[in-house]
Write a structure and sequence with these properties.
Blueprint: H1 3-12, H2 26-37, E1 44-47, E2 51-52, E3 58-67, E4 70-79, E5 84-87, E6 93-95, H3 102-107, E7 115-117, E8 123-129, H4 134-150, E9 155-161, H5 171-182, H6 186-198, H7 208-218, H8 223-231, H9 233-249, E10 257-260, E11 263-266, H10 271-287, H11 292-298
Parallel strand pairs: 8-9
Antiparallel strand pairs: 1-3, 2-3, 3-4, 4-5, 5-6, 7-9, 8-10, 10-11
């Protein structure tokens, strides 16, 4: 039973946090880089001992990665305290004690966004997309066809608008229209989402509204409610602008851009590759349960843990 130890640690003020990790610990470092770069378990990894570097305060650590006849050496600079390191080969500065995708994950706001999948699923996917973008169409069709079939309970996907107006003249109108349709329910939005990508090549700026009216009739939407919303399309457009601003704060400059528990993926991907990433991240989540601090962030009632009893509400 884990309830009493956790209760006692909370009551006595002790931290349930594990000791700080070090990038000089080869096992810890290997595990972190495997997660960061989604190395298949069959990929062989060997980490050299740290050696002095030309940069004061940093040591050089080389990692040798091999699979069959193929091999590559990745170079890292690790701070003397072992906490932070620089990925020289691919760029980026990381904290060995923080999830590498936490910074982006913390910036994502999915409140009110259309979604499908299991609430509270182990993996959260957030897709920034453009209804006029051909690559977004490919990604959308791939996800709608395969995601729930392969991961019926493990994934929740959220859709975010990021119309590239300089490239796609009717993309923002399509995004704003989607907002009006969403007001009548998630099912209507996803029907619109699938329909507009299926008809993407048939739509032009001057035919957009006529085509949408065809969808509205076919989907049995409340036409009066829809018309009232569309008459104030600037309000719906303002909601789209907020999501575009959120995307820009995340330095998004291309669509589709997807985040899987914060892991950034740019461009459409073959389903086989995307499924392998999701499988790997699910396995990582199983092997790395939340720390006490993370659990407390999810449940601010840490110190109200009770002994299981039917008397407890």
């Amino acid at each position: 039973m884990r309830f009493l130890p956790v209760l006692l640690m909370c009551a006595l003020g002790f931290s349930a946090e594990p000791p700080a990790k070090s990038a000089f610990d080869k096992t810890v470092f290997t595990d972190y880089i495997r997660h960061l770069m989604v190395f298949n378990p069959i990929v062989q990894v060997k980490v050299d001992d740290p050696k002095p570097s030309s940069i004061e305060g940093l040591k050089e650590v080389d990692m040798h990665v091999s699979y069959g006849p193929n091999s590559e050496t990745l170079r890292f600079f690790v701070a003397n305290d072992g906490k932070h390191f620089i990925n020289v080969s691919q760029g980026g500065i990381y904290d060995i004690n923080e999830d590498p995708f936490k910074e982006d994950r913390d910036k994502l706001n999915v409140e009110g966004a259309p979604s499908f999948g299991t609430p509270g699923a182990a993996l959260t996917m957030v897709v920034f997309s453009d209804f006029e973008c051909p690559q977004c169409k490919l990604e959308a069709e791939t996800l709608r066809k395969n995601l729930m079939a392969a991961f019926p309970t493990q994934v929740r996907l959220y859709f975010k608008d990021f119309p590239l107006e300089s490239l796609h003249p009717w993309a923002k109108a399509a995004a704003a229209t989607g907002r009006c349709i969403l007001k009548q329910g998630q099912n209507h939005f996803w029907a619109y989402h699938d329909w507009i990508y299926a008809h993407q090549q048939d739509i032009q700026p001057n035919t957009f509204r006529t085509k949408v009216d065809e969808f509205v009739k076919s989907d049995n939407l409340d036409q009066i409610q829809f018309g009232n919303c569309m008459s104030d399309i600037n309000a719906a457009g303002g909601e789209v602008d907020k999501e575009v601003a959120e995307g820009k704060a995340l330095n998004i400059d291309a669509t589709p851009t997807m985040f899987i528990n914060g892991r950034r993926l740019v461009g459409s991907m073959r389903w086989e590759n995307l499924k392998a990433i999701i499988d790997a991240d699910l396995e990582y989540e199983k092997a790395h349960p939340p720390t006490a601090t993370q659990a407390k962030a999810d449940d601010e009632k840490c110190c109200e843990i009770q002994i299981p009893s039917p008397l407890n509400k």
